[in-house]
Amino acid sequence: METRGTHLDALKSKVGNLPLLALVAANVLPIYGVVAFGWDAFYIVLLYWAENLIIGFYNVLKIACARVEPPAANAGKLFLIPFFIIHYGGFAAVHGMFIFLLFSKGDASRAMDVGSHPWPCFLVFVQLLLGVVRHCWDVIPADMKYAIAALFVSHGISFVYNYIIGGEYVTAKPKDLMGQPYSRVIVMHIAVLGGAFISAAFGSPAGVLVVLVGLKTVMDVKFHLREHRIAAQRSVKSQKV
């Protein structure tokens, strides 16, 4: 554990706080989209909804990589991971439908249509999510896809740098990880949706949207620092034990 900490300190001294820099850089791209491509409040909210899916994807990887003792306890992940995908997927699907209905963009009914062959039982929530994702991909401009890719890379850097290299996976608990994304997503999107709705009411002026993106970036940085501060404290406690 001590060697791991020494290696991570050496890495940080060489590249600085790379995940935080990547986070800020990815969050600045929507400002460029607003100014250069005329993105309105709908596109900003949809972009941040897409980020929720990215967060969920990496959370599945976190659960899968979390170290559990005894090793036989890894079998529990075979239940936790599908449960998280179905539960979080349903949450994200409903959230996405709400965004399309709220802003009246595109044919929202297409996102809700599961056709004549709905998937069995709770898997229908995953099917709904895939429908919303397809509809989202159809309606967003091509330049916005680069912003989504940037967010994916940013969260990937944080996953590798903090969770894997930084050793957070050693003290992470799969049961805690199951609920971790929800608090961030709910708080973030109440703020973003509220700001975007006000902006849309005034015709989505660029200045208001830039301020909204700036506030979201500040919140993101605070969530990022808090999450990894708690992980560091958990690591220190485990070393004392």
How would you describe this structure to a colleague?
By secondary structure, the protein is mainly α. It is 83% helix and 0% strand. The protein is built from ten helices and no strands. α4 crosses α6, α4 runs parallel beside α9 and α9 runs antiparallel to α10. It is globular, with a radius of gyration of 19 Å. The two termini are 13 Å apart. The mean pLDDT is 83.
Indicate the topology.
Elements: H1 2-15, H2 18-37, H3 41-65, H4 77-103, H5 108-112, H6 123-139, H7 142-165, H8 168-171, H9 174-201, H10 206-240
Main attributes?
241 residues; 10 helices; globular
Q: What percentage of the residues does DSSP assign to strands (E)?
A: under 5%
Low-confidence stretches: none
What would the average pLDDT be, to the nearest integer?
A: 83
Order of helices and strands: HHHHHHHHHH
Based on secondary structure, the structural category is mainly alpha
Biggest pleated sheet: none
Topology, number of strands: 0
Helix content: over 70%
Radius of gyration: 19 Å
Which of globular, elongated, flat, extended, rod-shaped describes the shape? globular
Annotation field: number of helices: 10
Distance between the termini: 13 Å
Quick rundown:
The protein has 241 residues and is mainly α. 83% of the residues lie in helices and 0% in strands.
